[in-house]
Specification:
single chain; alpha/beta
Length: 261
């Protein structure tokens, strides 16, 4: 089966980045997904774009890495401060003694286009371009025909978030990922790790705040950094979901579409 990577990015001069998403699909699905992603760009809550880019690339099947989705859990919180205490607790579970400093540095990622890559122990920033950051791409959920038909026209943003987190933390040098939405109307975020899976935290900021960002926590030797960045930005990945796992509803606006923090 021929597969293609399709990516959408939308922006305008006032807001900058508005929307982004991606799929790995068959040739037969190209037309319908081009249309879906175009409408997604045009109807985003952050505004009307004046620039929309659709990028389509052929993918060799043998280049695709197949991995299982992270286990999912949800922590209900009623305030941003409570949500951040949950993040601190999970960081400490990972043996990270500078958890509060990591949260403070996380806020510096709010203005970035991609994710911050942070040394988990020294807290040194490692991304080659500090404005662009690291953009984890070339990933999607692998589904059978029945699951695809029931996927709410491909708009289950929870699944997109889980796919991204699964790819990121599957690399042996990534300790954890932190993400909070930049959508003013959405306050949910997550922390993900191989140790405890994908943990949704229902309130991580105040309603109406446009601040959001993403951090990848790296641990390893200097020589391993280049391979990690290559994996995050270039490795093609399909994530296989367990049908019995907890999932978000198809109307849920989870915060972590591609590059849409």
């Amino acid at each position: 089966m021929s597969r293609y990577s399709i990516k959408m990015q939308a922006s305008n001069k006032e807001e900058g980045h508005i929307s982004g998403a991606e799929k790995i699909i068959s040739e037969e699905e190209l037309e319908q997904y081009c249309s879906r992603l175009l409408m997604r760009a045009l109807k985003h809550g952050k505004g009307k774009p004046d620039f929309i880019n659709l990028k389509i690339e052929a993918i060799i099947e043998e280049e695709i890495l197949h991995i299982p989705a992270l286990p999912v859990s949800t922590v209900e919180t009623v305030s941003a401060s409570e949500g951040r205490k949950v993040v601190l607790a999970y960081l400490r579970k990972l043996g990270l003694g500078q958890a509060e400093e990591i949260l403070a540095i996380w806020e510096q990622s709010y203005a970035m286009r991609g994710a911050m890559l942070l040394d988990a122990d020294t807290l040194q920033r490692l991304e080659p371009d500090r404005e662009r950051g690291i953009r984890a791409t070339y990933m999607d959920m692998e589904t059978d025909d029945e699951a695809r038909k029931s996927s709410c026209e491909g708009k289950n943003h929870f699944n997109e978030a889980l796919v991204l987190a699964t790819k990121v933390v599957s690399h042996p040098n990534i300790v954890a990922e932190l993400c909070i939405s930049d959508d003013p109307d959405y306050v949910t975020g997550y922390i993900a790790s191989k140790e405890f899976g994908y943990v949704r935290i229902t309130t991580l900021k105040e309603m109406g705040s446009p601040q959001g960002g993403r951090v990848f926590l790296f641990r390893g030797e200097e020589g391993e950094l280049e391979d990690c960045i290559r994996y995050l930005q270039q490795q093609k990945v399909l994530v296989h979901m367990d049908r019995n796992m907890e999932t978000g509803s198809c109307s849920e606006k989870t915060a972590v579409q591609m590059d849409e923090k």
